[in-house]
Amino acid sequence: MQMVLTGEMVDAAVAERKGLVSEVVKAEDLLSRCIEVALSIAAKSVAITPYAKRAVQAAYELPLAEGILEERRLTVEAFATEDRMEGLRAFAEKRTPVFKGR
Fold it and tell me: Is the pLDDT at 71 greater than 80, yes or no?
């Protein structure tokens, strides 16, 4: 809110504290951290990830009530995937999931 109402810039620490960014890293650690996050995302189900991306996009593009409905619809749709069931089984069995992209 501070930036919007005052037009003042905030530093990285303030941006992180206020939830404007999810993480702050040193410049020299940026590439390795990006690769780490990318590998973590890539290890997830290719069937489920698009649902999360669409839900985030809907949050920006739709009014709140419609966005919530769209998120609920996407969640129900994602729950019907084989990969979701595999993820739950793997979690319960304390093992790494083997996703099939379905």
Answer: yes
pTM of the full structure: 0.60
pLDDT at 4 over 70: yes
Same domain membership, residue 93 and residue 58: yes
Of 49, 37, 45, nearest in space to 96 by CA: 45
28 lies in the same domain as 51: no
Domain range enclosing 1: 1-43
Pair (37, 55) in one structural domain: no
Q: b/e per residue, 36-48, with b = 16+ CB within 10 A? A: eeeeeeeeebebb
With 80 as the cut, is the pLDDT of residue 1 above it?
no
